[in-house]
């Protein structure tokens, strides 16, 4: 098997890189061990006719105009602002925490200035801020921390807030107004025909060949490629020579409710303190699909299984740096994506990192 470029993984990183290199005139073979393209962003119509995300909800949002413009070559968009409620003390309350959350939870009637003053009174100043616990206590204090964050984090990561890097909790803001949007990015859209349709158009190029159900590690010695783009776990590529990098996995429990047009008021409801699952997502909110029934998914975080999330801790970052040093010695391989770069990337960040990496890849290929 011979090709200019072998790309391992047909998710965002692999597919974006494939398109860029194909348009630069490279013959690209992209493989994936799964039976579909799109990676974890893959979507499909379930047996009841509802468009679902088998690997959990994927909501696209970005502040980068160049990224939305690049992807717009392959999809039209549906405007969608994601909203999340958290089940706390018998109520469904907005998360991120805002004025509505605080007033309803504590029976108050504060304006924006009042909320800011209230938060200032209850917060526990932390300096320096090293952990996610530091971030949350410094922002909202202990009671809100315990009600909204501590239990959710324990389920999601299998760790306490104090054991996670500050970057995890820093992703979630606190607001003094009534803005109940989960994201505030300039561009908040869903692919109008779904993610899989977008990936299909992205990979529709005469210089791109797609082969599925192929495990790279089973064929790596039989493929002759001038360059390889690897989007899988970087520790696996190097045969775990320094030990395994920790990843967090998920188990998804999908359910169809045939006689229910709407199961919950918003796209996602978090359960920080109840149940073994972290959240329930109802897909029709995300897609805008009309259907007499509805399909939902419950997410159960777990230690074993497919790697979904790098675990952000200083010791894990130190281990990754050892693998990264090996990767930097390989001019014949580009490592890009959440697993290959051991980064808790959003989708737009993966696209941005891949567009940047594609430039370096082309330079390395030209130097051969």
Automatic annotation (TrEMBL):
Name of the protein this chain belongs to: UDP-galactopyranose mutase
Homology family: Belongs to the UDP-galactopyranose/dTDP-fucopyranose mutase family.
Enzyme class: isomerase
Domain UDP-galactopyranose mutase C-terminal: 147-344
Organism domain of life: Bacteria
Keyword Flavoprotein: yes
Family annotation (Pfam families): GLF, NAD_binding_8
InterPro entries xref list: UDP-GALP_mutase, UDP-GalPyranose_mutase_C
Cofactor: FAD
Keyword Membrane: no
Organism (species): Thermochromatium tepidum ATCC 43061
GO cellular component: cytosol
Entry keywords, A to Z: FAD, Flavoprotein, Isomerase
GO molecular function, one term: flavin adenine dinucleotide binding
